[in-house]
Amino acid sequence: MSQNIRPDGQDADTDLITLCHTLQPVSPYLFLDNLFRNLASQNPDLSKALFLSDAYSTLAQLPDTANDAERLTMLCDQLCVKQTAGFISRSLQMTDCHRTFGSQADIVMFGDSITEWGVWSEMFPGIKLANRGLAGDTTRGMLCRIDTTLQLQPKQVFVMAGINDLAQDETVDAVLGRYEEMLGIWQQHAIEPVVQSTLHVGSRLASLNSSVTLLNQRLRQTCRARGIPFIDLNAVLSDRQQLLDEYSRDDLHLNAVAYQKWQQIIEPLLLKSGR
């Protein structure tokens, strides 16, 4: 795909993904920021590696009659539309497939990308388990597709949600209200919900952590009132209300070590250890 993109400036016949694999556990944000600032003038193929070609082609289609400020606004708007459309398309496609191909499962993992990117069936091979995590989802979206958990007729649903809501400036009260609605639906269908704490995030996103802490406090109270298990994953994965660097490369998503910790924490609760 691209050449000459090693961070030391030396020639390297490799693509960006291959290079990132050699740089673990460097944060992709730090790596790409340094790469862009140091090598943009040296590497003619860098725009392809960094998806800049899409921005350039969009910019080329904007009217020449607009001034620079107007063109910048139009560029941001059109790139936002493309990114949002891609997210919505994937969300609808995945939900459609879940509704069409879902079969019975004893356990459902329900949430956003943090749930989706866990290899749960590999972690718990002896259990009929379905992964219904969906990257970028919020409690609004999860309510819209909660039927994809009900149709599986599970005994338990392990749920984690809220960080994307809070990142979109939703209030804790609003998130909690939708959370309680989901819990009520599962209980009405004789499904045991197991609430897993919304994870703290790292330093790059640390402004969200006070809301995460408050949401978890409220969730714990709700679970106690409803007789629902509440699992505090932050007690292991976070310190001082912040996700530990050793468990993430981007201050949000988890690495395999973190998923191993998660696996160990929830295993005793899976079907009340009746594996």
From TrEMBL:
A Pfam short name: Lipase_GDSL_2
Annotated SGNH hydrolase-type esterase domain residues: 110-260
Protein name per UniProt: GDSL-type esterase/lipase family protein
Ranges in coiled-coil conformation: none
